[in-house]
Fold each of these.
Amino acid sequence: MIFDILTLFPAMFAAPMGQSILGKAQARGLVEVRVHNIRDYATDKHQMTDDRPFGGGEGMVMKPEPLVSAIESLQQETPRPWVVLLTPQGRLFSQAIAWELSHKTRVLFICGRYEGVDERVAEYYTDDQISIGDYVLTGGELAAMVLTDAVARLIPGVLGNEASTATESFNEPILEHPQYTRPRDFRGQGIPEILLSGNHEAIESWRRGQALYRTRQRRPDLFAKLILSRRDEELLRRAEEENEIHSRKSVPTDDQENGFALCRIGALSGSESQR
Ligand code: 6GU
């Protein structure tokens, strides 16, 4: 799959796109990221890419000519790219949209800067407009990297575990269970005993309960859409019991915090009085 990126800051892409899984996918020819400088398509002598907004107001707007010249030039190539404008005005990016884009052979991401791009470009020269969340970035570059990463990892061969990405496409929207690795005791904090039991069925049940609990705590919006089986309800109840006992131990309430502080002061003054 080919990712074309139109930006005024091509240097922003080198490291993030060249490392790790994305770097390897490019080296193996599964993915190609081509970064194009919008300024190269500006024809006036100062290579201007932005201008003041009609009607007045703060900031600058990206001019249509260089952008459209770049888009049209890339659209004459084969395969023809699907054109996506990155803008806070776009539809909200999601795993479902990542899957949609992963089925294209070529996508062109346009990174807006300043107050945005001329609306005629957005309206007549793009196939899609996407935002990565309800906050404002200084430009679409980081959003383009987010999309490239999320889409590239869905392309067969990129992660090397086909089956697990395939199941992602129809998995229920639920948060992951907690994970632990060695050491078994880290600065006095242990791990849930069940993970050492070797009982895979019990471990899967525990993980399911933890995932449900975590989703309810952290993402009530997702939790509200889940349909729980009787078993899920039971696993959730057990997770709740376990986590609440655990949280009483490790995250003290205000009263316990004071109690703890008093103990320490008591212990300290005790040891000092001994000296
Ligand atoms: Cl795609 N661009 C900018 N500038 N800000 C954003 C965004 C995109 N998505 C969320 N915030």
Amino acid sequence: MYWRKIYFFPEDLLRHMRQYFKSIVIHSDEKGLFYALDLGGTNFRVLRVQLGGKDSGLINQEFTEVSIPPNLMIGTSDALFDYIAAELARFIAQEGQEFELPPGKQRELGFTFSFPVMQTSIASGTLVRWTKGFSIDDAVGLDVVAELTKAMKRQGLDMRVSALVNDTVGTLAGGKYSYKDVAVAVILGTGSNAAYVESAQAIPKWHGDLPKSGEMVINMEWGNFRSSHLPLTEYDHAMDNESLNPGEQIFEKLISGMYLGEIVRRVLLKMAEEAAFFGDIVPPKLKTPFILRTPDMSAMHHDTSSDLILVEKKMKDILEIGNTSLQTRKVVVELCNIVATRGSRLAAAGILGILKKIGRDTVKDGGDEQKTVIAMDGGLFEHYSEYSKCLENTLTELLGEEVSKTISIEHASDGSGLGAALLAASHSPYL
Ligand code: ADP
Ligand code: MG
């Protein structure tokens, strides 16, 4: 099995470290009203979070989700941030009087920005490069907080960005609020990334003051991991070459939601062209990049009807391929299974790499029983249950039964947004 070869994973991954954060300090006694803006790859979410302090914890959390129009993903920085700020302003305009702030006090926002950033302070950072379908050249190298702040001003919105957070770091912080043993956060959504808690002494690149806790959070940017040992096929190479970011985010392109359906499409196209899988003509729709989305792939994969009626419908509705035989539909499901299984097993191998690096892949003799919680978030992990099941089974297989009992995978729903609000709270000038 190819993933067994990935023994060098931890060190290679660590070469891709982009950011160091001082250890997350969340006391669970933060109090008040905070906002979060979570800009992922497909949608963005605006959250309003009410924190009740030590005894009450999270009192209330409300959110709205807006999809990002595709033209804005490849337009200008101003156009993207104006759109986001306008939605934020709309969210605020709709809120009731109970959320009115006393005069002189500004609303505070944690900004989850799920793209590689060179963090320059808790509330500033320059965009290193775009990933996942985004390509807005004039934003690269700019401080994304300054861009958002300017756009909010243009909307007449009186709001202050208190924290800039990567989604993995947000998920780690949000996860910590519920589970004290969170040591790793993994995002499997449109893209993929991971963060983990590292002993500050184990970070040779860090020359600043050591945090009191002795720990720091590392945003790995693991989506950008690449290695000659990764088992890339001709379909992966072709998809990468034709992507907006060739040569980049190779691991992400094998495991994350933006790409799985597209890989299935490419294999089906080849089967149609070279083996007349769908008869004498190659169905024209099958030639359209990204026409088969991962949610549709996942719906086909999960079709439990004996005659695979949902597969038939998807093939007809999306690819305009009618009259498929049951045999053909079974092959389509098997192909979804192969692509999802490869992705989830590689994601599990990545998690094993982290656990090895932090010494959580063994059971310690004597002493307290060590527990490790992995906070997971992202639409792929949340909705593609064959994928998540396979990921969890693979991790158990890699770690063995005994160690697996000390590791738990928890779905930290909306953890990245909540974490950003918590970090905004813990960096609030008013508290
Ligand atoms: P983002 O990654 O953009 O922050 P999400 O975490 O919500 O946002 O993940 C959205 C992604 O999750 C989609 O792009 C898609 O790839 C994947 N996804 C959403 N729903 C499903 C589903 N039902 N089955 C499989 N994948 C899904
Ligand atoms: Mg996200």
Amino acid sequence: MKLKLIYASSVLLLFVLLLTACGSDESNSANQNDNSDSENNGSGTTELEILSWWTSGGEAEALNAVIDGFGEEEPNIEIVNAAVAGGGGSNSQAVLSSRLQGGEPPAVFQAQGGFDLLRWQEGDYLQSLNDLYEENGWRDVFPETIIDMNTIDGEIYGIPMNVHRNNMIWYNKKIFDDNGIEPPKTFADFFEIADTLQSKGIIPLALGDQNPRWSTLLFEMALLNELGAEDFSALWTGNEDFDTAKIRSAVNTFSRMLDYTNENHSSLDWQDAADLVASDEAAMLIMGDWASGFFMSRDLVANEDFGWVAAPGTEDIFNIVNDSMGYPTGVENAEEAEGFLAYLGSAEAQAEFNQLKGSIPARTDIDVSDFSEYSQSAAEDFKNLELNLSLAGGSPVPAGFLSRVDDAINTFVTQRDPDMLINSLEEAKSLLQE
Ligand code: GAL
């Protein structure tokens, strides 16, 4: 037993080391060579690490903007960018898990509000942020829905950085205009457009599901279209049947979507798929609005180079992905770390970060009139549409359930066996009731 454990920990350590090495290639790290946690390096500068999976396009620029912004205020504190590549975060989460368990926490880490963040509380790895909320008046500026996603038993464990809308289609304006195509409102429109584009040798739907999370996102859109926000959210209570005509129909829609994707999808990540749209090779991408941050980082112009529309049948829904910052127990230099956390929740940081990220600020007191045209519309949509939590965003379900869904989706993408997918969902259901 002991031997097995030692073997398992060595394999995990090796995996984590590999991931950290891969991640640092892509991250715009402020200090790539230092992976230590918070420390004073002897030169009077205190180092604090921030762990995230923001390594490409707008997300990396957004992170760097807040690191630089804080650096200007606090020149004696160096923020070490410990981002780990891999969209959707599974690599970064594996590193986080091992560091929390190994007593080597970063000072601050990215997680997604809801189960993804709060699961770390079970191991007593999180510090309550209630005092920081009081000191900074955050209860008055963050929306209740978002605070609730970061709260367990009255203790708040996350500082929400943003609100992303997940249910979006991003399309190449030039391809649409050249082919006289209007953005789809229904899946019938979507498949008609996809046929037209495919017959002209254009990839209709860009996909990069190296991390199966991005295929799960497509399945999520098919489910939302079929069920609507309320019945979709009810699925995560664990009391609903997954073997229904509507869910089978969503599986069929999902399968049809896959017929229109690029052949090399399994070797690409989300930003590579976004690149196919940016470079006029593919017409559409179904992705959260970090894609708009990505297109802006490529200097593409909204409504000239790229356009957007809600995923079919979801125009009244705002499917939320929320990134929040957690504060682990056992962080050295707590005073400096808390200063950094306070900065991340400030109006200044949230404005800088979200303009580049493609999301809207989680704070409601920020004037977004300087934000992109897309973000201004998203800010209105957040106020007016029906809010629900994204499955692929890791908020409404335990991580164990989501990883079973990702596995089942991954198998479905190659085997296209609806019964197998439905059975896997049924089997995973017990994880929702725990
Ligand atoms: C999501 C995250 C976003 C974005 C995206 C791609 O999980 O919430 O902030 O970064 O992954 O990496």
Amino acid sequence: GNDNPYPYLDTLNERQTTAVTYPPDGPLQVLAGPGSGKTKVLTCRVAYLVHHHHLRPDEIVAVTFTNKAALEMKKRLNVLLGEPGANKLVLGTFHSTCVKYLRRYGKSIGLNNNFSIMDYDDAKKMMANFIKPIAQALKEVHIVLKADQVLSEISNAKAKGETPGGMRARAEALGSGGQLLSVMADLYEEYEKGLRAAGSLDFDDLLGYGLKLLRQERHVLNSVKHVLVDEFQDTNTTQYELMRLFAKEGNVTIVGDPDQAIYGWRAADYPNTVEVHLEQNYRSTGAILDASLAIVKQGKSSDKPDKKRIQKGLYTAFGSGVPVTLKQTSNGFNEAEYIADEIKRLIAHTGNLLTFDDFAILLRYNALSRILETTLQKHSIPTRLVGGRKFFERLEVKDVLGYLQLINNPQYHPAFIRVINVPKRSIGEKTLQGLLDRAKEKGLSAMDMTERIADGEDSYHLSMPVNSRKNLVQFVDVIRKLRVQAKNCTRVPEIIESVLEETGYEAYLRRTHADFDTRWENVKELAISGRIYQISYSVTISQEQEARNETSAPASQSAPKKSTPTTADVSTSAAPTESSNTVPRGKKRKATGEASSEAIDLEYAEEEDIASPAADIPAEEEADDSENIDIRGTPLRVFLEASMLATDAQAQDENAVIPRVTICTVHAAKGLEWPVVFVPAVEKGVYPFIKSTEEAQVNEEMRLLYVAMTRAQAVLQLTFADKRMAGKQEIPKELSPFVAACRADGKKSMFEPDYPVISREDRELIASVIGRKPRPEKEAAEIIHAYIVSIPAGKRPWELPWASDTNWRAGGAAFYHNSHNKEHR
Ligand code: ATP
Ligand code: MG
């Protein structure tokens, strides 16, 4: 019988149901292995909190580990809650969640609400500039500093909440041994000044300032009724503190798997936590689960004492399926060739049950991706990179983003430097340096200085070559024009189009780059992604408390549940009266009603100017509000924010109509699943990574391999090479000790060297595990046959990496028999 009004509860097992329907007040912890439906529980629980316990979506904060996981959850909740509801959840990573609160309330801790997020690339350039002038002096005392190294030290410091002063004190305590650290402390200080001058925060700041805001202004969290954290085992100290703030009265659901902990497990300090354990794995076949568990079982003994193990046994109702294979190849190149061939073969041998979308190649670190990308490309296999920021680091993408950043925040120095001579404005190095020096002297940003020069308000124009000055004036005109447009235009693709048009970027790119076509594609992709962000990042924060009057008492907790106007309601009823295009920056403008202007629900933004001013604004607000009100609430800022926090997959995901093989780091693959997973480079020095030597670290490396393997649903292949290029050298490699130690579990072999023929039974199991219908056997057989006859002339089947001499003959015959003998069942 079905007596529950929520159909999704029918898709859950008993334990899952217990967790989903547990009352919202009080801490709940779901501890379970991979693929046991933890994320599914979390997602359903969000829906249930809304449907059954009548929490408003904007009273729920749900935090995931990666952007991609957040997007997955958003998609599922769009279905369970409907899109307008799902859009109001505060759903994202810790970073993106902090950004949302900082934009809205950051002013109370002294942040400008148009702050930029400085990505790693820009931070590195800035740091390199700080190091340059002292490099020679350092060399004399035998210190060579790299920007990466300093940034990593700073990042560690920020994670601990250490200031430059704190770092300096630590250096002094070390005496003469603290020389290097003391230099780092100076650079840290300079770096912080640089960030502030550019009106920007780096990634670590987002968490640090987020923490500061939530600690200092507790009322901003008044509307939060429940917080849910996925992949809890990976929260670091700052994130853990953030969670505790969100979970005021212990209204928290945390979900995690101690065995997948990458950063080490801390028990939650909620003593009355109710624990639910899940034991059925719904993701993977028996062979995959067995092999994965064999890996992780090794690491028990030396783990930290506080680590909670839940080795209650994870089981699957699926059969054993295709065995996990462990393939040895001679070098990294052949490994990539093998994977490419296997992808094609598996598609064929499953009778086209699979598409490229169903494959993932999971890497210990990004550098392993290059050879795979190029090899797969050679085989005409399209790929998508997840977890990197390569797309956003491309020259042409950075150029266009640079303009957008500068329009959004004139103080953002990296953007100014990037675009001032793009396209060429013949502003020479000396002229530019003079301009920058002058700006520094006057305490102005480079952009402000440039505007003054262009307006003839600064005498520096007199010392500029006439031509440069003319071009500078033109540059300022363009920026001003774009600024006005960004203020009035709610569609980011249109702003991008204007940037291209006003700057003549297409012609410039064509003129200066031989590979114009691919670069232009990227520019277009960025414009398309502008559209995507308008959909996938349309998230709002509760409008219940008004930043409009920050000194007023926070809104009552007992406000009637359904009566507070939603963002959409407010924004669609706002009167769009501001139409002036000519208000210069800096002039005080009437502030808008913040309740509506903060709405970044961009689907509505297309219809209404959400930055439109309201009539009755308290006077102190007008005085208090800066010029930046100009583009508050416009999608541009949301787009930039998303671009800075995004990883590559998101730029490509939604508009990717063609199926692609995912190439992804193991870290970025957390929580995700694919029908077929390859894990290359299962070697000593990779698993565990060469730098991880301490026992605890080694155990974490082992768990990382476990995470990678447990992403697979139906087919899992590990590969390793005898030799691999490291820089310009080829170095010998050997199998990872994690795998070597458990090739066999008792009598049972965990890995096969290869598995050349997928039988009909295999096909059927694969189909059921991934929830698809297999093709009728006759059709499948034709596809397989066509594949085999398509093997290129001159290349004999047994020369293919996947078909070793003997098993090809045996397997080939078996295959032929299976597919052509109708009697065979
Ligand atoms: P991980 O630890 O890797 O994050 P997880 O525990 O979060 O895994 P989910 O991603 O939620 O697991 O679920 C794994 C797969 O199992 C998903 O495809 C999900 O839809 C499916 N699943 C979960 N619970 C059930 C269930 N009760 N019945 C059928 N399928 C389920
Ligand atoms: Mg999960």
